[in-house]
Amino acid sequence: MNNFIPAELWHFLYVVILAFVVGLELKTYYLAQHNKPSHLGSTRTFTFIGILGYVFFIININLYILGYTALAAIYITYYLYKLHQNRTSIISFLILSLVYTFGALIENFDIWMPTLVFILIVFTLNANRSLSYILSEVNIQEFETLGKFLLLSAVILPLLPNKELPYLHISAFKIWLVVVIISAISYGSYIAQKYIFKSRGYFLTGILGGLYSSTATTVVLAKKAINTDTTELINAAIIIATAMMYIRLLLIATIFNFSVASKLALPLLFFSCIGSFIAFFYYKKERARQHAPIDDRNPLELETAFLFAILFALMIFITNFVTNHYGNLGLKILSFLIGFTDIDPFVLSLLTGKNHLTVPQIATAVLIASGSNNLLKAGYALLFGKNKPKKAAFWLFVLGICTIISPYLFYKGSL
User: Fold this and answer.
1) Residue 171's beta-bridge partner residues?
2) Helix 202-226 crosses helix 172-191 at what angle (to 10 degrees)?
3) For the chain, which has fewer Cβ within 10 Å, the N-terminal or C-terminal residue?
4) What does the angle CA 235 – CA 290 – CA 213 come to, to the nearest 5 degrees?
5) Using alpha carbons only, what angle is made at residue 288 by residues 287 and 292, rounded to the nearest 5 degrees?
6) Rounded to two decimals, what is the model's pTM?
7) Burial group, residue 191, by CB count within 10 angstroms (0-12, 13-18, 19+)
8) How many angstroms separate the CA atoms of 149 and 383, rounded?
9) pLDDT above 50 for 2
């Protein structure tokens, strides 16, 4: 600010400008929505309200409160008049109240707070079309799901203690933080799949589904293969889902253990590229581009989150027990067996748990688990697709075997 101009003058001028623009915006809103201006006043009225709010606040807080009380009394009189005409909107009064606070906000929080309130006013007044679209397109249950995510992240997480639990060597806070992050990845992929890419084909479904759960996506796509002639496209979609699984594992490793992620980067990216190349080959062979109605169930459920937390804690305990009693060989066998279940809790237990494993040993376990999981998906493709996606099953089996033996190629001498 210029040292020769008092800060109060800058604040006063800024409040006047904001109040004037809000009044102009409200006038435009009423003309667009009702083809007539607001009865409560618009540009000049709101400019004077902004001036009054700032001046009264500077002079005396009691005068500021008295001024707002007077404005409220005026509006109550006007509102009673509106009730006789069956009009009950109070949007003008709400905006009037916000404009009146500009002076107090800028003196207490500096320029950013009234600016933020001003932006929200403008965006909200112009959000009518967007709100109409949301109400018509979004399932009402999605709001409940959003509430569940906020419950997981903003309510439960801060309440948990950050003290290490016995035998697990990790706190309840960090366990639940893992749940929140994994839920966010799955939920984000689900939202993109359902609302952003609504006209998706099978191939895009494989890409997005693989970022959420390649196993679930394989099952759903394999079932679609029974009643469709686009077998090559289904093969491509199933393979690309597994290619995306490698990317998802690398993302999770990067978030929770960068040292392991740097060790996994080369093999995971290598297998992802191989899978993508094979998938694109089959995709190009299929001329038809059918839309894919995918499993519409939302992955974010409270029961699922609590079950994941329990499995995660259990995997930490089992991993510590196996490595302490059976060493590296026991861990490899455990990794292979875990691959035939949900591998996320196991992988995360390796990435976040306090154990005596080296980085190559953890990376090896992750690769073995993901490889055996590919063998499971190959079986699922044949079982649920009634042998139709044979090519996808074959390549998933090949990728699985190659992934299992890959540590002996990439980490030779470190195991």
Assistant:
1) 164
2) 90
3) N
4) 50
5) 140
6) 0.70
7) middle
8) 34
9) no
